[in-house]
Automatic annotation (TrEMBL):
GO terms for molecular function: FAD binding; monooxygenase activity. SUPFAM superfamilies: FAD/NAD(P)-binding domain. This is FAD-binding monooxygenase. InterPro entries: FAD-bd (IPR002938), FAD/NAD-bd_sf (IPR036188), PheA/TfdB_FAD_monoxygenase (IPR050631). Pfam families: FAD_binding_3 (PF01494). Keywords: Monooxygenase, Oxidoreductase. Residues 6-351 form the FAD-binding domain.
Length: 406
């Protein structure tokens, strides 16, 4: 029997929340999205959309719309920072006969959020409300009573289900009393974006680069930014003894960039950000009529660009199952299956891979580093092992493995 009240409340208008809302809306389910921010925030976080995610977004009609505004990138490289050597290159083009999109799109997450909101939202059945903050959830026999604050004051809404897509500090997860298991790295990360074209000094850079260094590893990516020439992002670790004010000071930022890639004259910095990094997974992604997806359910370090992608995979998996429940085609036990499948993917793929990526880049033992590099070279040079490596890194294996869980 179909649920009488079919509206779903989504907390958080980030990329996962908006993809989830659009996917549900396409199935005829009315959605309300609450976002405490005034408007889509230009948060300079995730920017890599993997091929597996592009396939999902293509089913929603999004991929072709964002492609002209993205930077396509089929290759990524591992470098040895102390020597300047290119250790290995992986080319997604070698998967062109296996996957629909043999490349990633470098497309910042705030643009994905804004694109969906601008084109699809703000109708009665796809209702996105900025400056609205969730303040309470009460589960009833037939749904959930949602309390939230808006510019007009405190308001209430009855919905069938609530999906928390409201980030690592998720209010929904806290209201549900779900534990967030894992750990926090002692060091923080700094992200520096410059409009200077790093390839003019280091032409061996690709749009995605990983630099191994026992003293200071680095991730280097190119994104479109707000200009045709694009921006280069440099991500570096910050030691425990350095406070945020020092790290963010122009002199220290310049020093870091000059150490990474010396050049004549100062760098023009577009933005900088210092942030703590966690590896955590919610104990369950479902508690009654409350569900979690994206950073609300799992957070990880950014090495490999898996967080946003895993979150969008959550959204699509959940949409498929929740649609069946609301229409009466399945019992709500399939929502527990959602939790099992996506938690498995988060723990065994996103968490495992991002932890391994960080360990690879920061390895200090010279012999272990040499063995790691030799293994990377062998993997990249052999077609079969390279394809297997790239499929796992692009989260295809995680989707296949999770789908097998019953």
């Amino acid at each position: 029997m179909a649920t009488e009240n079919t509206r779903v409340l989504i907390a958080g208008a980030g990329p996962v929340g908006m993809v989830c809302a659009l996917a549900l809306n396409r199935q005829g389910i009315p959605v309300t999205v609450l976002e405490s921010e005034l408007a889509p925030v230009q948060d300079q976080r995730a920017a890599t959309i993997h091929p597996s995610t592009l396939e999902m977004l293509d089913e929603l009609g999004i991929t072709e719309k964002i492609r002209p505004h993205s930077l396509p990138s089929s290759t990524y490289r591992f470098h040895d920072r102390p020597t300047g050597e290119v250790v290995a290159e992986f080319d997604l083009g070698r998967l062109k006969d296996e996957i629909r999109f043999p490349y990633v799109l470098q497309y910042e997450q705030y643009k994905l959020t804004a694109a969906i909101a601008a084109e699809y939202a703000n109708e009665s059945d796809f209702d996105v409300r900025f400056s609205h903050t969730l303040t309470g959830l009460t589960e009833t026999a037939s749904g959930i009573e949602v309390e939230y604050t808006s510019p007009a004051g405190t308001e209430r809404l009855s919905v069938a289900y609530v999906i928390g897509c409201d980030g690592g500090r998720s209010t929904v997860r806290k209201f549900a009393g779900i534990e967030f298991e894992g750990f926090t790295y002692q060091e923080r990360f700094i992200k520096i974006a410059t409009s200077f074209d790093l390839q003019t000094i280091k032409p061996e850079l690709r749009f995605r680069n990983y630099f191994s260094d026992p003293d200071e590893w680095a991730n280097v990516f190119k994104v479109r930014g707000e200009s045709p020439d694009g921006l280069w992002r440099v991500i570096l670790p910050i030691g425990q003894d350095e406070d945020d004010a020092t790290a963010l000071s122009p002199a220290r930022v310049e020093q870091r960039l000059q150490k990474f890639l010396p050049k004549t004259g100062p760098y023009h910095v577009e933005y900088i950000n210092v942030y703590g990094v966690n590896q955590r997974v919610a104990a369950t992604f479902r508690k009654g009529r409350i569900l979690l997806a994206g950073d609300s359910a799992h957070v990880n370090n950014p090495i490999g660009g898996m967080g946003m992608n895993g979150g969008i995979h959550d959204a699509i998996n959940l949409t498929e199952k929740l649609t069946k429940v609301i229409s009466g085609a399945a019992g709500d036990d399939v929502l527990d299956l959602y939790s099992r499948q996506r938690r498995h993917a988060a723990v065994n793929y996103v968490q495992a891979q991002t932890i391994a990526n960080k360990r690879l880049l920061e390895e200090r033992d010279p012999e272990v580093r040499r063995r790691n590099f030799d293994e990377l070279r062998r993997t990249a040079d052999n077609l079969d092992t390279a394809r297997a490596y790239m499929r796992r890194a692009a989260l295809f294996d995680s989707l296949q493995d999770a789908a097998a869980i019953t």
